[in-house]
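Q: I'm building a small set of examples for a reading group on sequence design. Run inverse folding on the following structure and report the sequence directly after it, with nothing in between.
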């Protein structure tokens, strides 16, 4: 199935020079959504994660159904001030600005925790790399990354630790 055809491109959003990949048009297509989750699940099954970490907010949309399919738990990584209990946090650089990510301190329990990090898209890799650091600082085992979309020219994968990286669409 050609899910690339279901992704809309919006020029100059959220600021001039960014060609935004809008996945809402993929999400509203029932067959496209099912195909996306099923294909991610097939490609990630061998990684056998205990938990999927999804980054706010589009990482939640793909990460939670993927966790359900793989029989894993889901752990949200959120923007500052959103999680109610004690958090670990990390600052990072993204394609358009600086930001911080937080995860609940008690969400990651080594050693029995194989973690797969999931987001809609990898651009510079800053978000995924920061999330990987949160996982590694916890002592849990990072088993891989999964992204629906990879922007290859930005070479985000070069910034990531050496674990398998699953992607469905490359630009
Ligand atoms: P990065 O940290 O540079 O890899 O950026 C990844 C995060 O920013 C992901 O959560 C994406 O949702 C978002 N993002 C970055 N660039 C784009 C883009 N061109 N279109 C849509 N989302 C983007």
């Amino acid at each position: 199935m050609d899910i690339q055809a279901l992704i809309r491109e919006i020029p100059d959003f959220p600021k001039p020079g960014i060609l935004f990949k809008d996945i809402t048009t993929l999400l509203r297509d029932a067959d496209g959504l099912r195909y996306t989750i099923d294909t991610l699940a097939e490609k990630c099954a061998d990684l056998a994660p205990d938990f999927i970490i999804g980054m706010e907010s589009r990482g939640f949309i793909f990460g939670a159904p993927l966790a359900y399919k793989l029989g894993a738990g889901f752990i949200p990584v959120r923007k500052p001030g959103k999680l109610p209990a004690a958090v670990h946090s990390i600052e990072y650089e993204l394609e358009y600005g600086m930001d911080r990510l937080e995860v609940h301190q008690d969400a990651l329990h080594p050693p029995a925790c194989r973690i797969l990090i999931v987001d809609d898209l990898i651009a510079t890799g800053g978000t995924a790399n920061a999330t990987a650091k949160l996982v590694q600082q916890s002592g849990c085992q990072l088993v891989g990354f999964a992204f629906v979309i990879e922007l290859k020219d930005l070479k985000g994968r070069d910034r990531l630790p050496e674990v398998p990286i699953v992607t469905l669409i490359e630009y």
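The CA atoms of residues 148 and 168 lie 5 Å apart.
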